[in-house]
């Protein structure tokens, strides 16, 4: 593994290696065992979109690993004035040991990796959110102890999070069902891959998708960059909400996950959110541990 650009680049074995290391780092962290595995290393974090979890968990993660992180808002970089990704990649590679980037187009992340000479981590694009899904898989395994015979149902927009969830969960051998309006389906190539490689279904029927699900997952109806579509999306997604009626059809022991930030009253009711807040904030915490594992594997010396 040289970069983390999208989960389809990783084998099931590589994903499990990340999850196992993440569990170990979490255990050590909780027990006050220091692990300065990235002492003296620097991560640059380029943000073209807002962030709470990704920014803070990467920055704290680097600190806990003995390294340092630089917050680089694209507005302040020369990139914001038109310097190319290619030149930014070649320059930053001379100073840094790794780059995390949150941006719009997946091709920018791929280009950064192509032109730079250091590991690149995708901190969210319009297409994918691999760091999120590594934390999600870690959380699912914590609660359910294995991925065997588990069904995840995602309700809502077939967005970046849905795309990565499909790939990550199918690679771990889970069944995946998506409930979304016809015109907001996940990426067509990802869905075709999932159908060929596992138990996957995408339907506009929530009852059909959620039946017996062990993990119920949702995300906002309008992602970053889609703000002007908010009203149109509200109309299209009106019934795609995780609420008591939906939860009644899931497995009685089902957990609920949300990548956050949540728009309560839209994709999830406040009641369901609060009933499952423990899982949801464990999931948010696990961003820290999963990303530390990714950084150690990509930027550490033991490769
Ligand atoms: N889930 C997630 O990536 O959160 P932020 O946008 O706050 O980083
Ligand atoms: N789908 C959301 C996820 C935020 C973490 C977005 O892209 O805004």
3D architecture notes:
The chain is of the alpha/beta class and 303 residues long. It folds into 2 domains: 7-129 and 287-299, 3-Layer(aba) Sandwich (Rossmann fold); 132-283, Aspartate/ornithine carbamoyltransferase (Rossmann fold), CATH 3.40.50. 44% of the residues lie in helices and 14% in strands. The protein contains 12 helices and 9 strands. It has a 5-stranded parallel sheet. It has a 4-stranded parallel sheet with strand order 2-1-3-4, with helices on both faces. α4 (106-115) links the parallel β3 (98-102) and β4. α1 packs across α5 (130-144), α1 (12-30) packs across α12 and α6 (160-171) runs parallel beside α7. The longest helix has 23 residues, at 277-299. It starts with 11 loop residues before the first helix and ends with a helix. Norvaline binds next to α6.
Tags for this entry?
5-stranded parallel sheet; 44% helix; globular; 4-stranded parallel sheet; alpha/beta; binds norvaline; Rossmann fold; 2 domains; binds phosphoric acid mono(formamide)ester; 303 residues
């Amino acid at each position: 593994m040289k970069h983390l650009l999208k989960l389809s680049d990783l084998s099931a074995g590589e994903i499990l290696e990340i999850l196992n290391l993440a569990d170990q780092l979490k255990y050590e962290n909780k027990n006050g065992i220091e692990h300065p595995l990235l002492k003296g290393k620097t991560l640059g974090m380029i943000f073209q979109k807002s962030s709470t979890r990704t920014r803070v968990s990467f920055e704290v993660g680097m600190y806990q690993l003995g390294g340092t992180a630089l917050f680089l808002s694209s507005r302040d970089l020369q990139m914001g004035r038109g310097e190319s990704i290619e030149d930014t990649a070649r320059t930053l590679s001379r100073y840094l040991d790794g780059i995390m980037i949150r941006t719009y187009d997946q091709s920018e992340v791929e280009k950064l990796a192509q032109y730079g000479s250091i590991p690149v981590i995708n901190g969210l694009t319009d297409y994918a959110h691999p760091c999120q899904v590594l934390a999600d898989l870690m959380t699912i395994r914590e609660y359910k102890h294995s991925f065997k015979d588990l069904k995840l149902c995602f309700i809502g927009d077939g967005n970046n999070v849905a795309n990565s969830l499909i790939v990550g969960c199918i690679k771990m051998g889970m069944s995946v069902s998506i409930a979304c309006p016809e015109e907001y389906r996940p990426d067509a190539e990802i869905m075709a891959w999932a159908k060929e490689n596992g138990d996957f279904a995408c339907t506009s029927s929530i009852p059909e998708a959620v039946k017996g699900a062990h993990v119920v997952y949702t995300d906002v109806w309008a992602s970053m960059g889609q703000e002007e579509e908010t009203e149109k999306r509200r109309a299209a997604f009106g019934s795609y909400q995780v609420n008591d009626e939906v939860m009644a059809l899931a497995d009685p022991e089902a957990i609920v996950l949300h990548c956050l930030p949540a728009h309560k009253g839209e994709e999830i009711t406040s009641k369901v959110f609060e009933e499952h807040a423990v899982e949801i904030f464990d999931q948010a915490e696990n961003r820290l541990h999963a990303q530390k594992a990714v950084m150690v594997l990509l930027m550490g010396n033991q490769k």
